[in-house]
Request: fold
Amino acid sequence: MKFAARGRLETDAHFSMRDFIHKIAAHRRWSVAAAAVGLVVIAAIILYVVRIEHNISSQRERQRAETRVEVAEHMLNAPPTDGMTLFLNSSDVRAIANFRGVRYLATSGGLVALDDGGNVRRRYTTFDGLPENDLTALAIFRDRLFIGTAGSALLAFDGNAFKAYRFTKPKATGISVLLPTDSDLLIGTVDSGLFEYDGERFTRRVNSAPGGDFKAVTALLSFESRLYIGTQDDGLYIWREAHIEHITTRDGLPSPHVTAITILPASLADRGSIAVATDFAIVGLNDRNEIKPISNR
Reply:
């Protein structure tokens, strides 16, 4: 009996040890399997994150490519004009600017410099290297006089020589308005919307923002934290903190053809903070974009 009992104990101990070893082996197999599954899950997460980052990078690169501005720059030189005479009508004055103590006029017949008495001091035309004589806008930025043209894009004048900037991507030729700010020169065109120039490179931040799909710019006004952009056939756009609002005839604008924008004097504060002129009437606009009539002329 004693030997039988001891045999059963030894057998039970043997089976207990074997079960214990099997449990350890099973646990190890489960741990290995769990670790393998964990590695697969981690690898899948990493692959997913990499794909997302790749897609984001691709989208950003595509957006940068779509909004990239390419500009051809070159200095302008006067052509040989011996024996040639140029007759121009400069009576149509489009813009006036005082640059380094001289008053300049952008006219239909070139750039005109006036003396202190208001007489013509000098006239700059294609004989002086200008690509054309039909000038549309003037602005002083970074100690240079910038000149808009009707069909040859942008010019810069340092008082002695001219430099041309030709927009090749997107293609833009006619400049309608120039507006200098503390950080940028804003360049409104009749065929490709708005460009920004910081003195080194050109960008299109406003046009690349959601809703900034306007093209023909006719007027610009920077007031407080807003940039007002008038267009030839699509009403008024307002840029504020990378957000664009669009004001059209559905919102009370008299016409989609905006011709000018200006700040209203305090005496007309009840009509709004700015005035928007159209080819049909003039209205006031307040900070809440509420429109009130000013004149039907």
User: Anything to note?
Assistant: The chain has a mean pLDDT of 87. The radius of gyration is 35 Å. The longest helix spans residues 2-67.
